[in-house]
Amino acid sequence: MLFQEPLAYRMRPEKIEEVVGQDEIIGQDTPLYKMIQKGHVPSMLLYGEPGTGKTSLAFAISGSTNKEFFAINATTAGKKDVERIISEARMTNEAILFIDEIHRFNKSQQDSLLKALEEGVITLIGATTENPFHSVNNAIRSRCGQIKQLKPLNKESTINLLKRALNDEEKGLGELNVIMDDSLLEIIAETTGDGRTALSLLEDIVYASDETEDGIHVTTNTVEYCIKNKGFTHDKKGDIYYNLLSSFQKSIRGSDADAALYYLARLIEGGDLEAISRRLLVIAYEDIGLANPQLCARVLPAIQSVERLGLPEARIPLSVITVELSLSPKSNSAYKGLDKAIKHVQKGVTDEIPAHLKDTHYQGAKSLGHGEEYKYPHNYPNSWIYQEYLPESINSMSYYQPKDLGEEKRYKQVYDKLKQLKQAERKKNL
Fold first, then answer.
1. Which GO terms describe its biological process (predicted)?
2. Could you tell me which residues are beta bridge partners of residue 149?
């Protein structure tokens, strides 16, 4: 038996009691569940990764009420569609308007909802993969009593969803008599916390399996083949994309090689080697820095190897450099010192440059006293001689605060020694 609609579409919950997972948001003990059971639906924004059930929850809320329900997608709908729905809603006095991908609406389109929201003509349920605090107008957010973040389904919830689909004879695969071990459902659940992807995988697996007189037999090989060829991706403009990159860097910064490899795997499956390479280069200088400059110098050759190899071989140098960066000593002292100096300059600390440091490569410079007392360090033992380089008003300022880690220990020793020598010379000149 073949269905026209995909399994993930058919298995959408029709009532809030049928929602799988998201117990913290719509579980039977939550205020939102109790509100809806009593017929009160507040305007709300639902956000989360693709496949976490935002659209399903909106339709389940609609199915649990007697209110008229309108659903549009902001990628294809416009201001006129919103105005038409509001006009229809005025005739029924109250309706639910579900807008998927609401972050795609511009400010004018979002503002067109405000009057109807204030008057209670519509209840808005907006869904977005973006953080609504960044992507939805403050005026809309302030009129939404509930802003809920939906999380990926955990393993148990995903298995329950798959079992429901296998047993449901009306909307699911119940009539096909699928013979499938629970351990195979666990493999699917461990692959993704995306309910839509899990159901799509299950459907592919079932129709790829051999059928006998007693039913459809699903094997491990079939499951692994379908998972391998599913081709997971992520929206490169969505929150999940930036969250993965952030988690990747923070795991390396925190010296957790296992977590770093996990997030690297997710980024690789997303297919954006350029973003991974760019982030690795930033990490090398931002988080490793002077603690291991030799490693910093190896990151660019590793990235060039990635570009030449392409996937799947590119994963090899990526894995090596990721583990190296994770387990390396860390230091951010160099750029933090620069940031401190930048803030100083931005506050207007741009005092007179010492005359002996000023440019002498033009006629008349000497008559201005430029460079006259400059001491060329290479003419002195150890290529160092005391002279002031900072403007007089800030010549005791320390921007660089060295760390006693890795290779930076050596830099710290040199820095501290030079600082002591400068202080001693200053005392002599007092």
1. DNA synthesis involved in DNA repair; DNA-templated DNA replication
2. 47
Alpha carbon of residue 407 to chain centroid: 32
- Do residues 160 and 20 make contact, with C-beta atoms less than 8 angstroms apart? yes
According to DSSP H, which parts of 168-256 are helical? 182-191, 195-208, 220-228, 239-253
Contact 275, 236 (CB under 8 A): yes
CA distance 368 to 34: 82
Question: Cβ(371)–Cβ(361) under 8 Å?
Answer: no
Q: Return the bridge partners of 98, or none.
A: 71, 125
- pTM comes to 0.58
Tokens of 330: 């860390």
pLDDT tens, residue order, the chain (430 aa): 555 689 988 999 999 998 988 888 998 999 999 999 998 999 999 988 877 889 999 999 999 998 889 999 988 888 888 889 998 888 876 799 999 989 888 888 888 899 989 888 899 999 998 888 888 888 888 888 788 988 888 889 999 999 999 999 889 998 889 999 999 999 998 887 788 889 999 999 999 999 888 889 999 999 988 887 665 555 555 556 778 888 999 999 999 999 999 999 988 877 778 889 999 999 999 999 999 999 999 999 999 999 888 888 989 999 999 999 999 999 999 999 999 888 888 887 778 888 888 888 776 667 777 877 888 899 988 888 998 888 888 888 889 999 998 889 998 998 899 989 888 888 887 6
Cβ 408 vs Cβ 290: under 8 Å? yes
Q: H/E element holding 233? A: none
By C-alpha distance, which of 358, 336, 340 is closest to 349? 340
Instruction: Label residue 21 exposed, middle or buried (CB < 10 Å: 0-12, 13-18, 19+).
Output: buried
* Alpha-carbon span 133 to 135, nearest angstrom: 6
Contact 153, 54 (CB under 8 A): no
**Domains of the chain by start residue, with CATH:** 22-149 (3.40.50.300), 155-228 (1.10.8.60), 239-327 (1.20.272.10), 333-429 (1.10.3710.10)
